[in-house]
Amino acid sequence: MAWRAALIVWLALALWCLLYSEYVVGLNEPDAYKDADTFLIVVMFALSFPAAYIGVGLTFLYSIIFLQNRATGPSDLIFMWTAFAVIGYWQSFKVVPWLYKKLFRRGTTAV
Predict the structure, then answer these.
(1) Would residue 109 count as lying in a domain?
(2) Which of 15, 70, 92, 110 is 20 to 30 A (C-alpha) from 38?
(3) Does 9 fall in a domain?
């Protein structure tokens, strides 16, 4: 039950981050993409820490391959958000519960 509540809160924060980043891009200010980019990376990094380092690596590779001579666009924000969201979800709601079960359920068995 607690994992389900945590999942709902985590997904709500992650979706809010994506929507807010896209909103900032829609403001048509000079540094809108840069601001949205920075906001998205910082918030998603916090939501996905410590596995977020993998997301940083993926976004770095993506920027080297696809963003060589152009600015960040809305599709780039979606890619970065997806990379962090998948990694953060996998870490927080698959690996951590599995480790919790393995570590703490094992101690309750009688020998």
Answers:
(1) no
(2) 92
(3) yes
Distance (Å, rounded) from C-alpha 22 to C-alpha 40?
9
Q: Is 64 exposed, middle or buried (0-12, 13-18, 19+ CB in 10 A)?
A: exposed
Q: What digits encode the pLDDT tens for the residues 52-84?
A: 888 788 878 877 787 676 666 778 888 888 988
DSSP 110: -
Query: And the tokens for 111?
Result: 């020998």
For the entire predicted model, the pTM comes to 0.75
In a domain, 108, yes or no: no
- Domain assignment of residue 37, given as a range: 2-103
Query: Omega of the bond prior to 30 within 30 degrees of 0, cis?
Result: no
Please tell me the distance from the alpha carbon of residue 33 to that of residue 35, in angstroms, as a whole number. Answer: 5
The number of distinct structural domains making up the chain is 1
